[in-house]
Amino acid sequence: MKNLKVLPLAIIGTVIGAVISVILIVTRTLPMQASEQAANIDYLYIFFLAFSGIIFGIVTLFLLVGVYRFRARPNDQREGKNVHGNTGLEILWTAIPFVIVVACVIGGWYVLAKDDVYAAGEKSGQKIHIIGYQFGWKFDYMNEEIALKEEAELVVPVGQPIAFELTSNDVMHAFWVPDWRFQMSTLPTQTNYASVTPSKIGTFDVVCAYLCGVGHTGMNSAVEGSIIPQVRVVSQADFDKWVAERKAALAQEAEQADQTTTAEAA
Ligand SMILES: [Cu+2]
């Protein structure tokens, strides 16, 4: 049986994979980058995509060439050659993935650890408690002591780290703002901490990234008919104004509720 010319095939596979990666990277349709963390997350994505494309190229080429070269000819009923193993090959196919996985871990750790601005957000910025429920989000502004009603929109100031504490009232959800490249699970039994620094003023879609029940599709502000509002990023001045308005509205509501109870009691 003729052997495969391994090295030339590996080189051709790498080239094909690299071309596939470049096509995917150039034609990729990633959402806009609306946070300071988004660019690094995208670099990480490109890094993973390049590795995956090259491995895909090599594996697929070996597979196709192998199937073609070692196919059974018509009327060839012989048993195939019994191969026990190849120590060199086994060391190679353990070592290469090990190096790739370690490189991916280092890349991921570097980007995600660098982007952990939770402490900064906690110190100087806004601290917001996000509560997921079937099927929506509720936001408590811990610095401002405002708890918004269910289905109220999340409003945040631009250009400063926002610290999020995330929990769930029922099942698992995941709060995802694709334009921020921000996603964090909201779980019923624990609090997750995460942060983001919005860098663009505007409104951005909010998506629940876990299949959380029959109303899951509605937990996506991009879906028509969804009751989930988009996230609104505003200037610091507009944010301060919004906070003052919310506080005034809440105070008025509390006063009205007080009056109703007094009237009922009387
Ligand atoms: Cu959900």
Feature tags:
266 residues; alpha+beta; Immunoglobulin-like; 2 domains; five-stranded mixed β-sheet; three-stranded mixed β-sheet; 5 helices; 11 strands; 19% strand; binds copper (II) ion
Description:
By secondary structure, this protein is an alpha+beta fold. The protein has 2 domains: 93 residues; 143 residues, Cupredoxins -  blue copper proteins (Immunoglobulin-like). It is built from 5 helices and 11 strands, in the order H-H-H-H-E-E-E-E-E-E-E-E-E-E-E-H. The strands form 3 sheets. The chain has a 5-stranded mixed β-sheet. A hairpin with a 4-residue loop joins strand 2 and strand 3. The mean pLDDT is 87. The site of copper (II) ion has 8 residues, from loops.
Give the overall pLDDT as a whole number.
Answer: 87
The N- and C-terminal alpha carbons lie at a distance of 101 Å
- Give the CATH class of the largest domain: Mainly Beta
Strand content: 15-25%
Largest sheet: 5 strands, mixed
Separate helix tally: 5
Shape: elongated
Helix/strand-derived category reads: alpha+beta
